[in-house]
Amino acid sequence: MKIKVALLDKDKEYLDRLTGVFNTKYADKLEVYSFTDEKNAIESVKEYRIDVLIAEEDFDIDKSEFKRNCGLAYFTGTPGIELIKNEIAICKYQRVDVIFKQILGVYSDMAANVATISGENDKSSVVIFTSPCGGVGTSTVAAACAIAHANMGKKVFYLNLEQCGTTDVFFQAEGNATMSDVIYSLKSRKANLLLKLESCIKQSQEGVSYFSSTKVALDILEISYADIDTLIGNIQGMDNYDEIIVDLPFSLEIEKLKLLSKAWRIIVVNDGSQLSNYKFMRAYESVVLLEQNDDINIIRNMNMIYNKFSNKNSEMLSNISIKTIGGAPRYEHATVRQIIEALTKMGFFEEILQ
């Protein structure tokens, strides 16, 4: 991931010289835009999704005009100054590698504030797959959805938060980083969290980005709901993905329900069996009651997918205000890969994007 930097200075010769050096030494790390006009620089923050704006100290920048999360610093010609207008000061006349490191610092401070799930239209849509039923193939359906949407040309991130995660069964790619490294970075509150997360991402042959499962299943117990909120918010902050598909175990804990409330869409998986329908209805009734007393809104964003559905032993629920968007049969004697391939061809995943 390249950090997008906008430089604002009246000295065009300096801008051209600095931009040229950045493009030569840090072309793989920085995407640099230069401006001599304040209005054009401010407009670029949203148009080009600028991460860091560095303005010459004679300009007086109003960050409220950015309309998005963007780090701000000021150029100064005087060495030794730390702050200008309560923002980081960067001396213009020093080694380029020092300026580069200071830009990374401003970016890291900014990125650390991208801490929660955003529902803004220009952010990745968060789709959470969950189920109170158990054993109905929620993870398989979520992985199939990620692949189906990637096949449609969407940039998809798949995040599996099961205690005994199965990500590496569904997706393969080179690299040693795992979800354990992600959790360590979240817990240690590293200033360069976004960059660390980026370094842990793998991409499958289908084009789905993901984190590998934890090294030990116990590691996932270290992640809190606040950590999950921060993690998804930071993935959104990368501005690399159209959609983040999350496999999240169901719970009636208020903090988890509040997390579900932030999703653009919630997909509940059910097999329609007597036991699964009973479990779902108990969960559904509880959520309806909790919505009356707590700051959560879940039902309105819920859709149902029936998986492992049997015409003989399964039954679709009819007395609920949740739309069913599709269903799939039980695939006997099939491998995980064969099941996923069959699910991706069902067609109902397209409706999630609508």
UniProtKB/TrEMBL annotation:
CDD domains: TadZ-like. Residues 1-108 form the TadZ-like receiver domain. SUPFAM superfamilies: P-loop containing nucleoside triphosphate hydrolases (SSF52540). Pfam families: TadZ-like_ARD. This is Chromosome partitioning protein ParA. It comes from Agathobacter rectalis. The lineage of its organism: Bacteria, Bacillati, Bacillota, Clostridia, Lachnospirales.
